[in-house]
């Protein structure tokens, strides 16, 4: 197998494979949001047949090349059309693709590499053998085939109480088509938490990518004032919780949960199969997502850095600098 950039004449074939075997985050319309920092790479057989792909987001900081997760993009792939039926042959085929990706990364030799792999990649040994740190991350996946009442019952008592409290206190939830409302609440939350946010990428997601066919938003309101927002993107199978925020002056424990439950209900009504919370390993956030009753699911990130950079990052983390 070989990995190389997708040529213009190959883009339609790449996109068809991404649609069939990847996620919306592998599709060209999503990758285009990030300009020349994002590159679509094709996975080819030795005979030149395009069988899969992966996306790499590259940036420069302080003169160093960094490969990492693109803003608002949970995974980079790879995705692969596997033709084999034999379990051993399937494993070998997937492993060859990962070995090619590891070769590609080693050839680029970035100062820092931090790539999140697709959830379906259960075998990260090719990276482990190359000296990458293979680190598990976690999300929660909610089965939307369940009856809505069963989904509610599977939630924690705390989350059910949050949602009920929102209704008892007169809060209302509405579908929101004016994504400027979502932007305001999301940016306000990031700023209060003193977290950086790539505003051009945020605007590209909300105002260039988002369409009624691929996304939706719900906001919880006190009277006419939006106080919490939930923004979701989706393909034909899975809804991904991508952005959320709340208004600090109007904070209510049930506002965010009510918007999230409305989003879950809407995703189910659309016929989607799974709701992905795009979880976090930060304890309060993980506990919040856990309360919605999804199945804990892991995926891998593969990390590597030049030795002097790695030492510097460790010292910075320990507060030595």
Written account of the structure:
The protein is an alpha+beta fold and 321 residues long. The chain has 11 helices and 13 strands. Strands 1, 2, 3, 4, 5, 6, 7, 8, 9, 10, 11, 12 and 13 form a 13-stranded mixed beta sheet that branches. The termini are far apart.
Please provide a brief summary of the model:
The protein has 321 residues and is α+β, with helices and mostly antiparallel strands. The chain contains eleven helices and 13 strands.
State the distance separating the first and last CA atoms: 44 Å
Q: What is the 3D form?
A: globular
- Average per-residue pLDDT, rounded, comes to 92
Quaternary structure of the protein: single chain
Please report which band the strand proportion falls in: under 5%, 5-15%, 15-25%, 25-35%, 35-45% or over 45%.
25-35%
**Main sheet summary:** 13 strands, mixed
Radius of gyration: 21 Å
Question: Strand tally, please?
Answer: 13
How large is the count of helical segments?
Answer: 11
Q: Ranges with pLDDT <50 over ≥5 residues?
A: none
Helix-strand sequence: EHHEEEEHEHEHHEHHEEEHEHEH
């Amino acid at each position: 197998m070989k990995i190389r950039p997708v040529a213009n004449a190959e883009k339609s074939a790449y996109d068809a494979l991404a649609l069939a075997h990847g996620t919306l985050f592998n599709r060209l319309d999503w990758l285009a949001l990030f300009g020349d920092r994002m590159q679509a790479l094709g996975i080819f057989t030795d005979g030149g047949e395009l069988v899969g792909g992966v996306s790499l987001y590259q940036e420069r900081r302080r003169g160093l090349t960094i490969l990492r997760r693109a803003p608002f993009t949970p995974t980079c792939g790879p995705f692969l059309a596997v033709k084999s039926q034999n379990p051993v042959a399937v494993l070998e085929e997937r492993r060859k693709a990962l070995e090619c990706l590891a070769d590609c990364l080693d050839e680029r030799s970035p100062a820092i590499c931090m790539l999140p792999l697709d959830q379906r990649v259960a075998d990260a040994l090719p990276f482990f053998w190359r000296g990458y740190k293979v680190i598990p991350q976690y999300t929660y996946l909610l089965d939307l085939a369940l009856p809505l009442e069963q989904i509610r019952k599977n939630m924690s008592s705390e989350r059910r109480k949050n949602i009920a409290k929102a209704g008892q206190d007169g809060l209302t939830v509405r579908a929101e088509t004016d994504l400027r409302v979502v932007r305001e609440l999301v940016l306000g939350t990031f700023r209060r938490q003193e977290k950086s946010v790539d505003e051009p990428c945020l605007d590209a997601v909300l105002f260039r990518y988002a369409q009624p066919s691929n996304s939706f938003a719900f906001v919880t309101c006190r009277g006419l004032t939006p106080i919490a927002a939930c923004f979701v993107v989706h393909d034909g199978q899975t809804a991904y919780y991508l952005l959320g925020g709340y208004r600090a002056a109007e904070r209510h424990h049930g506002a965010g949960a009510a918007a999230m439950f409305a989003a879950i209900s809407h995703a189910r009504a659309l016929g989607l199969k799974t709701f992905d919370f795009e979880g976090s390993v930060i304890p309060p956030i993980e506990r919040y997502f856990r309360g919605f009753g999804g199945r804990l699911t892991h995926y891998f990130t593969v990390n590597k850095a030049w030795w002097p950079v790695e030492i510097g990052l460790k010292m910075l983390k320990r507060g030595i600098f």
